[in-house]
């Protein structure tokens, strides 16, 4: 025990010590920030790292241990796998598979669902599941609209199936890689000697992963399909979906209007009213982009986004006359004109934390933002000042060429496939061969096999040498917020172990063995982890719960590795909220879902898989330590 702890030691109840209280306080702060999103998750992770080191007398985390997450094999492996996943996406191979499955599905809703699950599940076992969903959102959205099916019926199953598939192999998700690293570190601790702890092999839990994938897929195609609402119309009427009838209209500029002779930018800056000029029609010619420098003339027909009250003020003060509201067909012109499309903000986007105004969004990307959906709520008024969050979906109006450019920008996920995709299809054999090599060498037994971190890094080098990726694309391929999250939570897990906090919680949970069988305690750990991962990061859940699970297993005389697997599987089952897993955020907006939709569809699935997984672990690995 540290000197400050000895000096401050008091008769604290339940075996608490000042060290444990300090660590619990940091955990509570981290969880609170993860849930509320007051600051980005990567900044939260850095804050946790700093607090652990500053409070070293209590947390027992030295500066070396505090930054150990950056040197962790889990962090480096995840970094390499993100780069490899980008290489695969650059070739367009996943999109090609998706398009082939779309041809198979046609306009039959059940075939479309089978195609969605059939692509996302198995693919996510070999490519990190987060980029798989990012790649497939536009493919599945187009499949739904072309087949006259509501995207709401397919996009949530896309996210859920990717989570199932992530449990097929070690590299399916960063959660598995981190869990393997934590288990390997605990195995080196003398106090856990003889507990059968070890790092995961490539196909360590594939047999159970297949069962989870099959059971989950059957649920999505039966009960889940029945529970899923049709929030988005199959006809893709964005005006109706975003309830924009009251916000889109046409006005004519009168002779006496004070905005005559001024540019669009000047007209906007001179007014305190919330409106956007989307298009100008003059003498049969339409001006689309860029508009800011275009001078307004008498008789111009302006397409305007604003609410009814503001429109009345514009008519009264700016010399405009109303011609009528706009329909979706009037807004979505031919290819050479303007189109409506949804774009999703991923975690890696530079726009996260910015607003449309502070990011100069319209000028930078030559698009008009008509509305955006954030956490299920549609925002149409004063949009320029609203902070942009991960998973927000913007409804934008742009030309086909601009949409194609947006689809190549890693700041966005465009919810429709580009008309002129720029894939390196000639590199598909190289990319597929490299991924197969990474998996194959990592799966080989010693002395022929390679550690997964070595195999993955070798794959990165191979992708550059073969031209699948360009050298400058390596750094853009990494979701740095994920890397900083891993680096921040890893020392938090070490603090839980070294201060005795994990032992205290483990003893408490282990007390349930007084009235529950061992399999019941295992189910409790699965359930607690699953509930936790629905509100915080899946990686944070693994780091916090695995040390606790090992302690509890040791106390009840159970197979510690079985408890590690329960936590690992549970951490990838964030079905009940849209914020527990990045892939849920990717489909939240395009699917038009409400928060309650995830509870209604994901709740029964969460319970079903808790039973299936717990029984599967007991069957394959046993509940008692191996002899």
UniProtKB/TrEMBL annotation:
SUPFAM superfamilies associated with the record: TrkA C-terminal domain-like
Protein name as it appears in the record: SLC13 family permease
RCK C-terminal domain mapped to chain residues: 236-320, 328-412
Compartment list: Membrane
TM helices/strands, residue ranges: 43-61, 67-88, 158-179, 205-228, 428-444, 450-469, 478-496, 516-536, 556-581, 601-623
Keywords: Membrane, Repeat, Transmembrane, Transmembrane helix, Transport
Bilayer topology: Multi-pass membrane protein
One of the Pfam families matching this protein, by short name: TrkA_C
Source organism of the structure: Halospeciosus flavus
An annotated GO cellular component: membrane
């Amino acid at each position: 025990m540290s000197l400050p702890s000895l000096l401050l030691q008091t008769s604290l109840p339940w075996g608490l010590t000042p060290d444990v209280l300090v660590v619990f306080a940091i955990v509570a702060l981290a969880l609170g920030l993860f849930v509320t999103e007051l600051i980005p998750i990567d900044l939260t992770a850095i804050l946790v790292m700093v607090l652990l080191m500053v409070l070293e007398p209590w947390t027992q985390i030295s500066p070396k241990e505090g930054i150990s997450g950056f040197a962790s094999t889990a962090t480096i492996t995840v970094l390499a796998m993100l780069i490899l996943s980008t290489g695969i996406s650059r070739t367009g191979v996943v999109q090609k598979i998706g398009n082939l499955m779309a041809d198979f599905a046609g306009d039959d809703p059940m075939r479309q669902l089978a195609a969605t699950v059939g692509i996302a599940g198995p693919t996510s076992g070999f490519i990190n599941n987060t980029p798989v969903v990012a790649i497939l959102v536009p493919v599945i959205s187009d499949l739904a609209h072309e087949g006259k099916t509501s995207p709401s019926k397919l996009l949530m199953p896309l996210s859920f199936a990717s989570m199932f598939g992530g449990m097929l192999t070690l590299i399916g998700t960063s959660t598995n890689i981190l869990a393997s690293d934590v288990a390997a570190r605990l195995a080196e601790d003398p106090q856990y000697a003889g507990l059968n702890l070890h790092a995961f092999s490539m196909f360590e839990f594939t047999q159970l992963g297949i069962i989870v994938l099959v059971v989950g897929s059957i649920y999505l195609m039966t009960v889940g399909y029945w529970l899923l609402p049709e929030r988005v119309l199959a006809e893709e009427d964005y005006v109706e979906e975003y309830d924009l009838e009251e916000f889109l209209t046409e006005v004519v500029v009168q002779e006496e209007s004070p905005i005559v002779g001024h540019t669009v930018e000047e007209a906007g800056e001179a007014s305190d009213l919330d409106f956007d000029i989307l298009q100008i029609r003059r003498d049969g010619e339409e001006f689309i982009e860029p508009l800011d420098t275009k001078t307004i003339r008498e008789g111009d027909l302006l397409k305007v986004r604003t609410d009814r009250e503001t429109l009345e003020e514009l008519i009264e003060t700016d010399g405009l006359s109303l011609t009528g509201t706009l329909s979706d067909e009037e807004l979505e012109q031919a290819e050479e004109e303007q189109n409506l499309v949804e774009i999703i903000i991923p975690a890696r986007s530079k726009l996260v934390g910015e607003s449309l105004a502070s990011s100069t969004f319209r000028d930078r990307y030559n698009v008009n933002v008509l509305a955006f959906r954030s956490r299920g709520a549609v925002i149409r008024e004063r949009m320029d000042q609203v902070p942009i969050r991960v998973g927000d979906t913007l409804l934008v109006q742009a030309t086909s060429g601009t949409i194609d450019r947006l689809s190549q920008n890693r700041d966005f996920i465009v919810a429709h496939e580009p008309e002129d995709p720029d894939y390196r299809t000639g590199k598909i054999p190289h990319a597929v061969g490299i991924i197969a090599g990474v998996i194959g060498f990592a799966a080989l037994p010693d002395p022929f096999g390679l550690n997964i971190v070595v195999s993955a890094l070798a794959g990165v080098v191979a992708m550059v040498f073969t031209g699948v990726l360009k050298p400058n694309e390596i750094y853009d391929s990494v979701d740095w917020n994920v890397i900083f999250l891993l680096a921040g939570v890893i020392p938090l897990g070490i603090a839980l172990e070294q201060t005795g906090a994990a032992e205290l919680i483990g003893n408490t949970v282990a007390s349930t063995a007084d009235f529950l069988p061992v399999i019941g305690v295992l189910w409790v750990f699965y359930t607690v982890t699953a509930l936790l991962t629905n509100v915080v990061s899946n990686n944070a859940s693994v780091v916090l719960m695995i040390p606790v699970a090992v302690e509890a297993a040791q106390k009840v005389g159970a197979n510690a590795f079985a408890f590690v697997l329960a936590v690992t599987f549970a951490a990838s089952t964030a079905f009940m909220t849209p914020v527990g897993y990045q892939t849920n955020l990717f489909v939240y907006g395009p699917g038009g879902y409400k928060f309650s939709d995830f509870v209604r569809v994901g709740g029964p699935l969460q319970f079903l898989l808790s039973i299936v997984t717990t029984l599967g672990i007991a069957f394959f690995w046993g509940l008692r330590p191996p002899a």
